[in-house]
Automatic annotation (TrEMBL):
It comes from Streptomyces graminofaciens. Keywords: Cytochrome c-type biogenesis, Membrane, Transmembrane, Transmembrane helix. It is a multi-pass membrane protein. The lineage of its organism: Bacteria, Bacillati, Actinomycetota, Actinomycetes, Kitasatosporales. The chain crosses the membrane at residues 55-73, 109-131, 201-220, 478-496. Residues 1-22, 536-574 are annotated as: Disordered. Residues 53-532 form the ResB-like domain. It is found in: Membrane. It comes from the Bacteria. This is Cytochrome c biogenesis protein CcsB.
Amino acid sequence: MSDTETKSGPAEESDLGAAGAQLSTAPQEEAPNLPALGAIGWARWFWRQLTSMRVALLLLFMLSLAAIPGSLIPQSGQDASQVVDFMQRHDTLGPIYDKLGLFHVYSSVWFSAIYILLFVSLIGCIVPRTWQFVGQLRGRPPGAPRRLTRLPAYATWRTEADPEQVRELALKALKKRRFRAHVVGDAVAAEKGYVREAGNLVFHIALIVMLVAFAWGQLFRSEGNKLIVEGDGFANVLPQYDDFKSGSLFTAEDLNPFSFDLKSFTGTYEASGPNKGTPRTFEAALTYAVGADGKERSTTVKVNEPLEIDDSKVYLVSHGYAPVITVRDGRGKVVFEDAVPLLPLDSNVTSTGAIKVMDGYRDAKGKWDQLGIQAFFLPTYGGEGTAVVSQFPALVNPVLNLTPYHGDLRVNAGLPQSVYQLDKSKLKAFKDSKGAQVRENLNPGESMKLPNGAGTITFDGVKEWAGFQVTQQPGSGWALGGAIGAIGGLAASLFIQRRRVWVRATTGPDGITVVEMAGLGRSESAKVPEELGDLAAVIHDEAPTAADPKPADEPESEPAAADADSQTEGAEKK
C-alpha cells in the first residue's frame, strides 16, 4: 500500500467534473455584463447583491451598530423624562439627535430600513439554498473523476482481491462511517458532512426567527410598575398601574387577566461585618388568581424569581416602608387613616414622602382646610445627637419625623403633581408658641398635637410595601430558541467539513487488482487525508498488498528469505 499523499495544487475542473462541483449550497455569482443590462437586468443584479452572503453580513453588522445609540442615549419609549432632561442639558446635540431619531432608535425609519433589508436578504438567500440542499439530499454522490491522482488526498496499492470484492469492502467501510455511498461504474462514490450545510441553513433560519421575535416583542410588549402595601392587591388592568408603557400595536385587550394580593413581605439583612446592612433575602408572599373566576393560589416571589402567568412575568423590584397614619381634625373626627408609602433615599432605607389630607378636615374653628405633612421615616434611629438618617435597613428602632402644613395643596389646579412631594407654594407651616415651625419625632403609638387645637396626627405602626414590575414580552421564547439554533447552526457550519471520497478498483495489465482512493474537501484541511488514510487502512486489512513478482533469475533455494523481504516491504509501504 503506498503512502497517502496530500497535494497542494488545485484540481483542474476538466479532470474533476461534477465530482468537485458544489460542495456548498452558496449561490454561484456571475459577473454581470454591465453594458448589456437593462432595467430587468439591473433589478436582477441588485437582487443577487442583496441576497449575497457578504451583503447579509454587512447588514447584520450595520444593525448591530445602529442598536448602539439605543443603549447609550435615553429613549422616549423607556423614560421620557430622561429625554426631556437631555434636551435641556444639551442645546446643540438635543435637536440634532431628535432630527436623526436617536431618541426612538428602534422605531426610526433608518433602523427599520436596515431591519427590513436584512430580513429580505436572509429570506432571499435561504430559499434557493434550501431547495438546492434538498436536491442534493435526494441525489447521490457524483462518480469518480477520471484521474484521481489530481485530488488533494490520494492513496493506491495492488492487491490480489477481486475488484468486486474491494468495492464491496469499501462500500461497507464507508457506510459504517456514516458516508452516503454507492457504486458508480468501477468505483465507489461517497460523501459526508451534509450537517455543515444544514447548520448553515439553520443559522440563517434562526436569524430570521430572532428578527421576527424581536419585532413581535417590540410591537406587542408592555411594561408597568405597581407599588403595593401589605394587605392590598392588584388587578392587571391599565388604571391599576402607577406607570405603564407598551409597544405601538399593543392594546388593553392584550393584557392577561389575573390579579394578586400582597400578604406579607420579608426582608433580611447582614447584621454585622463589612457587609452589614446588605440584603440577604427579599420575599413577597402572594395569593393570585388567573381570570375572573380563577382558583386562588399561593406563591412566593423573590428577586429574579418572578411569577409567570401565560406570557406575563411579575418581578419583585423594590421595597420600602409605609407608616400607618391617623389624622383627626380639631373636633376629634378621623379624617385620614391609611398606610402611606414612603420612598427610600439610601441603602439603609431612610425614606421620605408626603401625607395629603384633601377632604373632610376642619380646623379648631370649624373652617374647611387642607393638611400637607412632610414625612421622614427612619427604620433604625440612632438616637438624639445622631444624624437624621437610618442606621440599619430593618425595623429596629423606627421613628417618624413629621412637619405639618395647612392651606391649599393645589390638587384642584388641574396640574399633575407627585403623591410623594408637597407643593408648598400655597401652604403655611404650623408654628408653636415661640414662633418656631412645628416638627416632631414619633415612635409607633405616639401622637403629635397640632397647635391651637387644630387636631392630632398619630403614628399607629409600620407596614412594608413591595414594588412589582409586570412585563409582557411575547416572542421571548422564540427569540431564545432562535439564539440557541443560531449558535448550534454556526458551530456545525464551522466545525463540520463537507468531503467526498472515491474508491476505484480495476484489474491491472498483469491481472492484479489496482486500488485507488482519493478524497476531496470543500477547503484544504488535514482531516481529509487523515480520514482517507484511516479508510485505506481498514480496506487494506481485508485486501492486503499483493506480493511483488519474483525475478526470473532469482534462485529457488531461498523462498523463506524472499517471503520475509516481501512481507517487510509490504509493511513499510502500509
